[in-house]
């Protein structure tokens, strides 16, 4: 598949997607969102892939939705096209883990895209923000919802109302990112983390991802019940037998995802 706005590679059992509109700091236009959804779905369906890394450039993960594409739209067009969000939840729908590796700007839709991934690793030069308020609008793909769940009401409200950016240290302090790494090792670090996940039992990985995501959608008791059911279900897999046998035999497990 030939893409124009993203670069897609495979590194062993890891899928790597780079957003690639350098002339617009990776601003997310309809074509990019479409291509990204397609690439994620392909990796999700590819048995050889165990985890996915989504990244941008050293200057920008993505500076938001493409303002030049959005500017002339009417309400009727935006609503009828379900403008830019029609394909948007692709990252959230992916069943294999997706790691966002963020360097530089992750603004507006760029910040929202990173937050839809399973976790965010960021470079020390990362800047997160929801500056839509400066354009006379507001976030349209989760900025008021996911950011609030990540960092709490006070910070989310301030960022959404003022448009101020958060740097990497503040993002780590407030739980938006899992780790900060030097900019020049960001992609290698994300690939190594993804490779570590890809070595595990894919079934256990997918079940774990689904269970953690349940924490955001349900009550504690229902979430814990869901977790227990998934935990019990994994005893039906060969990977559970292999994982526990390998521990007892003091060797590395060879998972087969069955
Ligand atoms: C279209 C963009 C863009 C964007 C940057 N560019 N962001 N084009 N949409 N979101 C373009 C610029 O027009 C410019 O093109 C080139 O990229 C380089 O940008 P500069 O502004 O010259 O770079 P710099 O001075 O370094 O400033 C970087 C920046 C600034 C702080 C990130 O570009 C900026 O504020 N961008 C907009 C951020 C934003 O408001 N994002 C939210 C968008 S709304 P030319 O042709 O001039 O060289 C949104 C809604 C989401 O995301 C809704 C749901 C998906």
TrEMBL record:
Transmembrane residue ranges: none
Reaction(s) catalysed by this chain's protein: a (3S)-3-hydroxyacyl-CoA = a (2E)-enoyl-CoA + H2O; a 4-saturated-(3S)-3-hydroxyacyl-CoA = a (3E)-enoyl-CoA + H2O
EC number of this enzyme: 4.2.1.17
Entry annotated with the keyword Lyase: yes
Top-level taxon of origin: Bacteria
Enzyme class label: lyase
A Pfam family reported for this protein in Swiss-Prot or TrEMBL: ECH_1
Keywords: Fatty acid metabolism, Lipid metabolism, Lyase
GO biological process, one term: fatty acid beta-oxidation
CDD domains the record matches: crotonase-like
Keyword Lyase tagged: yes
GO molecular-function terms, A-Z: enoyl-CoA hydratase activity
Job description of the protein: Could possibly oxidize fatty acids using specific components.
Record-stated family: Belongs to the enoyl-CoA hydratase/isomerase family.
Entry protein name: enoyl-CoA hydratase
Organism field: Rubrimonas cliftonensis
